[in-house]
From TrEMBL:
Protein keywords: Membrane, Transmembrane, Transmembrane helix
Name of the protein in question: Rod shape-determining protein MreD
Organism of this sequence: Gelidibacter algens
Residues that span the membrane, as ranges: 6-23, 35-60, 72-93, 113-133, 145-163
Record has Transmembrane as a keyword: yes
Record flagged with keyword Membrane: yes
Length: 168
């Protein structure tokens, strides 16, 4: 296995373990639950096999579902996120994405913030819509989506800043 593949495998396992052992037990005010495991999908290398990526996204969501006993909502949200990610890569990074040369540690902060925010909000909206599954509770869905998304975005940005390689 190459160094990149080993790095991605380690990221996959560590994010699942941190999510199920630490972050699944955080529940502020009934609305705020961070889901940092989606960093795997957000930071997955752009130029890899798309079929493999969608499968790994499903596997990631499935693992979180198994540990959380959540009936497939994480898997559905992750697969949707993996499927629509290229649209948001192009929207956030423009020409850099067209040439398949994105290095997230070398992108400007505003592009990264837009990209993270859009994907995290969509993931949370899909996940909470499937969890609550009642259109009459749309306010609750939007409330949980908004508050959890803000908290998750902050945590994901802090984690990527702390664990990114320094620019030269």
């Amino acid at each position: 296995m190459t160094k990149v593949a080993l790095n991605m495998a380690a990221r996959f396992v560590v994010l699942i373990l941190v999510q199920v052992l630490i972050f699944n037990h955080i529940n502020f005010m009934g609305y705020i639950n961070p889901y940092i495991y989606i960093l795997f999908i957000i930071l997955f290398p752009v130029n890899n096999n798309r079929t493999l990526f969608v499968f790994l996204a499903f596997l990631l969501g499935f693992c979180v579902d198994v540990f959380s006993d959540s009936g497939g909502i994480h898997a559905a949200a992750c697969v949707t996120l993996a499927f629509i990610r290229p649209v948001f890569l192009k929207f956030s990074f423009g020409m850099v994405y067209d040439y398949q040369s994105i290095k997230f540690s070398q992108t400007d902060f505003s592009s990264r913030l837009i990209y993270f925010s859009a994907l995290i909000f969509i993931h949370h909206f899909i996940m909470y819509s499937l969890e609550i599954f009642n259109i009459s509770k749309i306010i609750l869905i939007l409330q949980k989506t908004l508050f959890s998304s803000i908290f998750t975005i902050l945590l994901c940005l802090i984690i990527t800043i702390l664990f990114s390689k320094k620019r030269k």
